[in-house]
Amino acid sequence: MAASIFAAVPHSPPVAVFKLTADFREDSDSRKVNLGVGAYRTDEGQPWVLPVVKKVEQMIANDNSLNHEYLPILGLPEFRANASRIALGDDSPAIKEKRVGSVQCLGGTGALRIGADFLRRWYNGNNNTATPVYVSTPTWENHNSVFMEAGFKDIRTYHYWDAAKRGLDLQGLLNDMEQAPEFSIFILHACAHNPTGTDPTPDQWKQIAAVMKRRSLFPFFDSAYQGFASGSLDKDAWAVRYFVSEGFELFCAQSFSKNFGLYNERVGNLTVVGKDADNVQRVLSQMEKIVRTTWSNPPSQGARIVATTLASPQLFDEWKGNVKTMADRVLLMRSELRSRLEALGTPGTWSHITEQIGMFSFTGLNPKQVEYMVKEKHIYLMASGRINMCGLTTKNLDYVAKSIHEAVTKIQ
Fold this sequence. Notes:
By secondary structure, this protein is of the alpha/beta class.
């Protein structure tokens, strides 16, 4: 029998975070804790369907005017408009001047990919595969892959995390921007930086914007946690809105997986801010061609849920309350974990746990300490030391804190 034509295909290594979840599921130890996967969990450790989402799903089910016809290629118009509105603000001059456009995408990843494909084809001239793309050190691992698969050949890193002080390396970041070639593309986390949970302050964002403007660098924001980070939609969108107010043309990839709990619906939006309406319309015309050959047409259910919620003042307020519930639980878990580690006298400082924001915390645990946590304590976390704060509950906090204390004390 002839060998398979696929015989030379190598096994690709598994995606780390999903492999971690699979290992967790197979673990029979009653003490096991999953601090890996980036999804919200209740204090019972269960997924949460937002009450406002349940309500809107019922409304959609009962609406006899709806059908399953194709949406426009760029997506549901009311979803796109409302998604961009919450990113840029109700009073955004850019929206009023009609220099904002958007594309409904398959989650935040899809928004990044459509933006990357467009930039590779059209940014600052045609087919710029050699344009440097900068991602933070560390960053969400998919950032590198998305831009590489889009055809960019020069993926670079910029300083971000200062391991010694467990905070932002602002000077290193600014220096890298100063030395980057003009027109380089910078991927910026709008809020709740993944994986560190460390964000620039408004004053630091102003310094970053000043350098980027002077060096003609292009900001591509990834906004995956608006509202989820601080509990305030406006606070979490501050950086994006400030850059728009400073006259930048920019892209902003939005995800509604976290703040709506719509993980498997793949609801994303790419907001485009240009110099004028004509520029934006030409950009969207090219993005429409990219979408046509990528997924051709977007799904409607998740987009309708988001659009219906954002368009109704009553449902919008209810959603903001749901989001604040999630954000407050994360903030509480941060406070409780820090207080337990400090009470145990765990070596090192732990103030960074409450200074960081959003779903993730960069604990500072090294790979050997992480290995100890996984193998000896059945606590699953990323090799980088990143933990999902939502995996903590009032029932496992003591166990997790004592295990971290043990790992740090026993293993250097």
